[in-house]
């Protein structure tokens, strides 16, 4: 019988929570289901999130979560390679998958009546993946091509990868999601089998459904398809806490490129790890003060004002799973050097430490947060993303509902306080891309079809 | 900044390849403003927000021999208008929580606004948008700065093999046609543009008779009419841009190899394809969906990636434009296997061209396209994109309502016939950008 019941006894009732149109359930096998009803259009997005990503990896097998994500399309005991994609396609669906530091997620977008198609296939590959040497040998080549395209041949991405591996010493955030090329070259099928068995289980997964559905119907479907799956004992990754950084770090990357590029990062806490839980929100506001649109300081002061930067930005993600980085990046204008840009960014930081931000600036950041909260509801996919990202790092999805209020509560003094506490030299890493010349050459000719020689 | 996400399939241009859609298409309301600008409106009261998009026939196809002029003009609109500085405009808009963006490609240039629908927010935001489109100031200092920034952006793109390949592809496929030029311009052409050129361009192309407006959101018909009138109130009437000339077909195959110090080689193969409203649109669209447009199940994806592991991204797509936009095949592969990848891609194209799809492939493609129709219009932003496209290219208002029927009506014979008449594998341009034989891996 497929009926593993909802965990009524364990949790007291089937519906653990129901805020607004969001419903949260847990099946007996530990699978978490979150349904957000959105009846604007007759569509549904179904996402399966696994608590595994590059930050769960260790040296020697980097990139394995992402390679496994590719292999999840390569057949199960019940479906031949390629069948998954064919079935979704014939049902009018679009699908994809993504891997990050903290999670691996799979999704389908479908007309609303096709949700069972997604559940049947996702439940199947959650436990029944068939990893074969033949498919692996081809797909690992695809991943290496992906690495060449995304990182090796993209000077800004390559610089960022080097930066990240320098900023972190023992934290697993040093691992690139795509993996080091040498680790990809030495990856074996057995590594993937082990990784799959270790992390792919209902009690390490969150299913998020958003769209024109009734939550109770989705629960019944989830029980039918995911309910029978066997849970695993999940051993959480070791903490690998980053030791205190005792001084600034700096690196230079030389690659063929046209334009210099600067990355600056400061080690900062995130919501999950902060001692004071207002701090991550203050850092988030700080990112908005610097880079919350064209009115923010970096565009106003560095792009339009002093014209030191051709482009520049700042970012921070308070929902990371582990302590992370507050990041700046930028490209100098033609009339300025990368050192000028670095100097200008550091001056902006000093100003944030020396004087409180103005009420007008705070007001603009908050107005944008309030409006974005409405705009985000235009996308069912994005609504699912928000829930999945929070839950996959072990945060409650309801934090998203509190977000606007928490941001609104941030004061100018708090912004100044986090700037003083965290944007300091001892927490800093700087990377510079120093372009080597590109020497272009051309060969034009009129070929016959297929007439070519190795480049 | 850097996304830490790595997706399995590049969703590259997937939506450009397609268009269409629907089973319960939104009713599009259409009228003209007092100034003579066409308005396309779909009410969407569910969320308290409004999307407004105004498109001008002011893309780089109208550069008139000054590559980069259309793009630079568009980028300067919100850098100063009606006496307000860039700082003033940004402060006011962002203080309302509104998002304003501008952009320009080959056919069109646009300004888009997303705002909360409360009158206290929407009305001042629309006033600012109106100033930006009809009262741009074009100060010397802003002009010089933005031109410098375009030059840096251009150089940044020239360090990416994919951008180099795209630039060269358009230049080679379109020759003397205005679609050949890069919308961003060249280092030389940007230097030659004067502030006066920008002002003249703006006066001529940012006019009521050269624009259409798309509105989607939480306003009623009366409210939408007021918004559109307000938006166009200060626009000069002007006249529509001259029609972009017809694109001549390629007479013969040619190939360019461009050295770039990269580990991968990027390939583009193609020729002029089709235009918006093309009589062969549906058979070509469905045919390409099977060949290289249908994502993870297309012939190209299965043969090049699934079976041989040659490339991460591989696809083919039509970009229908005012005149024949390109039909492009693309992939990237390790330098030492580019010839194998070229052979595979060309033989798949040739086989499809000669024999067309199978019945099973056609049935599967129709199921995907029609079954996925609701997904194409499931948000205000997607609907705004569609009705903007319908208005700009003057497609019938029932385009979306009839889309699925027209997909279902396509036969194997029509696809084969359309590919044989319109697609010529022996007269395609091939652009190859990449490094030398070393491949940077120890394999």
Commentary on this structure:
The complex is a heterodimer of chains A (455) and B (443). Chain A is α+β, with helices and mostly antiparallel strands. Chain A is built from 16 helices and 13 strands. The longest helix of chain A has 20 residues, at 133-152. The model of chain A is unreliable at 1-19 and 442-455 (pLDDT under 50). Chain B has 443 residues and is α+β, with helices and mostly antiparallel strands. In chain B, the strands form three sheets. In chain B, strands 2-3-9-4-8-7 form a six-stranded mixed β-sheet, with helices on both faces. In chain B, helix 2 (69-76) crosses helix 8 (195-205), helix 4 runs parallel beside helix 9 (221-232) and helix 10 (281-293) packs across helix 13 (359-371). The two termini of chain B are 32 Å apart. Chains A and B meet through helix 2, helix 3, strand 5, strand 6 and helix 5 of A and strand 1, helix 3, strand 8, helix 5 and strand 10 of B. Strand 5 (94-99) of chain A pairs antiparallel with strand 1 of chain B.
In CATH, the homologous superfamily of the largest domain in chain B goes by the name Metalloenzyme, LuxS/M16 peptidase-like
- Give a quick account of the main beta sheet of chain A: strands, pairing sense, barrel closure: 7 strands, mixed
Q: Per the principal axes of the C-alpha atoms, what is the gross shape of chain A?
A: globular
Low-pLDDT segments of chain B: 7-23, 437-443
Radius of gyration of chain A: 24 Å
Question: What name is given to the CATH topology of the largest domain in chain B?
Answer: Cytochrome Bc1 Complex, Chain A, domain 1
What is the average per-residue confidence, as pLDDT of chain A, rounded to a whole number?
A: 92
Number of helices of chain A: 16
Proportion of helical residues of chain A: 40-55%
Largest sheet of chain B: 6 strands, mixed
What overall geometry of chain B do the principal axes of the alpha carbons give? globular
Class by SSE composition of chain A:
alpha+beta
CATH architecture of the largest domain in chain B: 2-Layer Sandwich
- Unreliable segments of chain A (pLDDT under 50, ≥5 consecutive)? 1-19, 442-455
Query: Which protein chains are joined by the largest interface, and how many residues does each one contribute?
Result: A-B, 109 and 111 residues
The spatial strand order of the largest sheet of chain B comes to 2-3-9-4-8-7
How far is the N terminus from the C terminus of chain A? 60 Å
Cα-to-Cα separation, first versus last residue of chain B: 32 Å
Fraction of residues in β-strands of chain B? 15-25%
- Using DSSP, what is the number of strands of chain A? 13
């Amino acid at each position: 019988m497929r009926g593993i019941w909802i965990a009524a006894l364990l949790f007291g009732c089937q519906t653990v929570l129901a805020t607004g149109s969001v419903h949260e359930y847990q099946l007996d096998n530990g699978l978490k289901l979150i349904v957000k009803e959105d009846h604007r259009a007759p569509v549904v997005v179904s996402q399966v999130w696994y608590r595994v990503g590059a930050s769960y990896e260790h040296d020697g097998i980097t990139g394995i979560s992402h390679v496994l994500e590719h292999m999840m399309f390569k057949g199960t005991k019940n479906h031949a390679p390629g069948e998954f994609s064919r079935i979704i396609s014939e049902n009018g669906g679009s699908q994809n998958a993504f891997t990050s530091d903290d999670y691996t997620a799979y999704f389908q977008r479908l007309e609303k009546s096709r949700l069972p198609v997604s559940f049947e296939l996702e439940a199947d590959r959650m436990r029944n993946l068939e990893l074969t040497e033949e498919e692996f040998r081809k797909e690992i080549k695809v991943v290496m091509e992906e690495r060449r395209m995304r990182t090796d041949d993209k000077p800004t991405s390559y610089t960022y990868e080097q930066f990240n591996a320098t900023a972190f010493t023992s934290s697993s955030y040093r691992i690139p999601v795509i993996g080091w090329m040498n680790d990809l070259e030495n990856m074996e099928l057995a590594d993937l089998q082990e990784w799959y068995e270790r992390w792919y289980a209902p009690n390490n997964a969150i299913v998020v459904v958003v769209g024109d559905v009734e939550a109770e119907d989705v629960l019944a479907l989830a029980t039918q398809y995911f309910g029978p799956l066997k849970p695993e004992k999940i051993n959480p990754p070791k903490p690998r806490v980053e030791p205190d950084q005792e001084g600034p770090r700096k690196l230079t990357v030389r690659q063929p490129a046209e334009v210099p590029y600067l990355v600056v990062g400061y080690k900062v806490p995130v919501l999950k790890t902060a001692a004071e839980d207002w701090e991550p929100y203050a850092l988030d506001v700080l990112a908005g003060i610097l880079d919350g649109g064209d009115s923010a300081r970096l565009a106003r002061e560095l792009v339009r004002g002093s014209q030191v930067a051709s482009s520049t930005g700042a970012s921070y993600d308070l929902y990371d799973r582990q302590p992370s980085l507050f990041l700046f990046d930028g490209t100098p204008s033609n009339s300025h050097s990368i050192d000028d840009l670095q100097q200008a960014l550091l001056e902006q930081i000093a100003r944030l430490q020396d004087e409180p931000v103005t009420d007008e600036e705070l007001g603009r950041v908050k107005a944008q947060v309030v409006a974005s909260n409405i705009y985000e509801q235009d996308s069912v996919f994005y609504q699912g993303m928000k829930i999945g990202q929070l839950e996959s790092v072990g945060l409650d999805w309801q934090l998203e509902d509190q977000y606007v209020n928490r941001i609104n509560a941030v004061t100018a003094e708090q912004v100044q306080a986090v700037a003083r506490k965290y944007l300091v030299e001892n927490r800093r890493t700087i990377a510079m891309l120093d372009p080597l010349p590109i020497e272009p050459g051309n060969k034009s000719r009129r070929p016959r079809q297929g007439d070519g020689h190795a480049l | 900044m850097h996304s830490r996400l790595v997706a399995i399939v590049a969703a590259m241009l997937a939506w450009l390849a397609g268009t269409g859609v629907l089973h319960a298409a939104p009713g599009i309301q259409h009228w003209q403003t007092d100034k003579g600008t066409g308005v396309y409106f779909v009410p969407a009261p569910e969320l308290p927000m409004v999307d407004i998009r105004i498109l001008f026939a002011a893309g780089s196809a109208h550069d008139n021999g000054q590559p980069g002029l259309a793009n630079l003009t568009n980028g300067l609109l919100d850098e100063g208008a009606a006496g307000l500085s860039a700082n003033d405009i940004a402060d006011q808009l962002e203080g309302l929580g509104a998002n304003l963006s501008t952009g320009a490609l080959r056919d069109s240039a646009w300004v888009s606004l997303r705002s909360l629908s409360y009158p206290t927010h929407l009305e001042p935001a629309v006033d600012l948008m109106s100033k930006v489109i009809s009262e741009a100031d074009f100060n010397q200092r802003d002009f010089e700065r933005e031109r410098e920034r375009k030059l840096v952006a251009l150089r940044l793109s020239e360090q990416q093999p994919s951008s180099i390949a795209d630039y060269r592809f358009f230049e080679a496929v379109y020759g003397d046609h205005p679609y050949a030029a890069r919308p961003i311009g060249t280092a030389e052409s940007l230097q030659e543009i004067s502030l006066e050129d920008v002002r003249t361009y703006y006066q001529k192309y940012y006019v009521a008779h050269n624009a259409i407006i798309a509105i989607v959101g939480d306003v009623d018909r009366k409210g939408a009419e007021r918004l559109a009138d307000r938006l166009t109130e200060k626009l000069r009437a002007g006249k529509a841009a001259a029609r972009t000339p017809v694109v001549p077909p390629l007479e013969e195959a040619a190939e360019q190899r461009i050295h770039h110090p990269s580990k991968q080689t990027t390939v583009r193969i193609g020729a002029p394809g089709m235009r918006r409203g093309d009589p062969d649109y549906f058979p070509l669209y469905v045919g390409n969906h099977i060949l290289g447009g249908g994502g993870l199940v297309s012939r190209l994806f299965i043969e090049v990636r699934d079976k041989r592991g040659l490339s991460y991204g591989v696809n083919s797509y039509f970009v229908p434009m005012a005149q024949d936009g390109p039909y492009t095949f693309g992939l990237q592969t390790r330098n030492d296997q580019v010839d194998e990848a070229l052979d595979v891609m060309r033989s798949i194209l040739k086989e499809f061209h000669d024999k067309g799809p199978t019945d099973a492939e056609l049935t599967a493609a129709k199921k995907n396209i029609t079954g996925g129709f609701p997904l194409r219009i499931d948000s205000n932003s997607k609907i705004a994109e569609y009705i903007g496209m319908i208005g700009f290219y003057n497609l019938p208002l029932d385009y979306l309502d009839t889309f699925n029927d027209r997909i279902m009506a396509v036969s194997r014979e029509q696809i084969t016939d359309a590919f044989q008449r319109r697609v010529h594998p022996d007269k395609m341009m091939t652009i190859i950008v990449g490094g030398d034989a070393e491949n940077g891996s120890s394999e």
